[in-house]
Amino acid sequence: MKNLRILSLLLCFIVSNSLLAQESSVYEKEGYVSLFNGKDLTGWKIPEGDGGHWNVIDGVIDYDARSEAEGNKSLWTEKEYTDFKLHVEWRFKGYGDHLFPLPTILPSGDYLRDENGDIVEPLGPNSDSGILIKGAGQVQMWCWSVGSGELWTVRNDKSLPAEVRAAAVPSEKADQPVGEWNSYDIILKGKRITVILNGITVIDNALYPSMVESGPIGLQHHGGVNKETGKLMGASSLVQFRNIWIKEL
């Protein structure tokens, strides 16, 4: 029985590595360049004073939301980009230590409100991160009912036309359950962005008015430790990333 168990684990390891190798060759053939070598954070700017909380564990980038850095705690590429196609796989490992208010975002980009005009915010477990696009904003990753892929800075800019804000809201929730891997394919051309989550287009050629010409790609820090309790706050970035590929356009 013990030998069968070892054999089973070995076969799973071989199959997993084989699938990753096949995926790598597919992206290489299509002209993509890897942003993560699976071994260390070469090519990435680790926040000064981070303390090892952005780390590589078992071939994936792992973050525990406990960075000790001052200021910006996100992880950024050393290189800057203009237009591109980006593939990145991600998953949440779990949640912070308490429930978090989770508003319902309507297709218009506004929040669901009660008869008194107050935002309806039921409490729920949440983790929060995002793919940072050239320092101009982010493609959201979270546990809200609207689903991941939302363009936070666009939807929340009340000065923008209604149709622009609405286009920043995911068309559907396409997330896998917490603990399972998701895949993003993000296409950025000028000030237009498309987000494909797990094969489903959730943001379709939306206008991103604040997008800049060039900048780095980032993996977002969110949340952190409550200094009074020493525990993680709600909506912290308990997250992992793998298979990060980019093709400049």
The poorly predicted ranges are 4-16
First-to-last CA distance: 53 Å
In CATH's first tier, which class of the largest domain applies? Mainly Beta
Quaternary class: single chain
Strand content: 25-35%
Helical proportion, percent range: 10-25%
Rounded to an integer in angstroms, the radius of gyration calculated over CA atoms is 19 Å
Mean pLDDT: 91
CATH topology of the largest domain: Jelly Rolls
Q: How would a textbook summarize the main sheet? A: 8 strands, antiparallel
Tally of individual domains: 2
Question: What's the helix count?
Answer: 3
CATH homologous superfamily descriptor of the largest domain? Exo-inulinase, domain 1
Can you tell me the CATH architecture of the largest domain? Sandwich
The run of helices and strands is: HEEEEEEEEEEHHEEEEE
> What is the global morphology?
globular
Q: How many DSSP-defined strands?
A: 15
Structural class computed from helices and strand pairing: alpha+beta
What do you see in this structure?
By secondary structure, the protein is of the alpha+beta class. It has two domains: 1-30; 33-248, Sandwich (Jelly Rolls). The protein is built from three helices and 15 strands. A hairpin with a 4-residue loop joins strand 9 and strand 10. The protein is globular and about 55 Å long. The model is unreliable at 4-16 (pLDDT under 50).
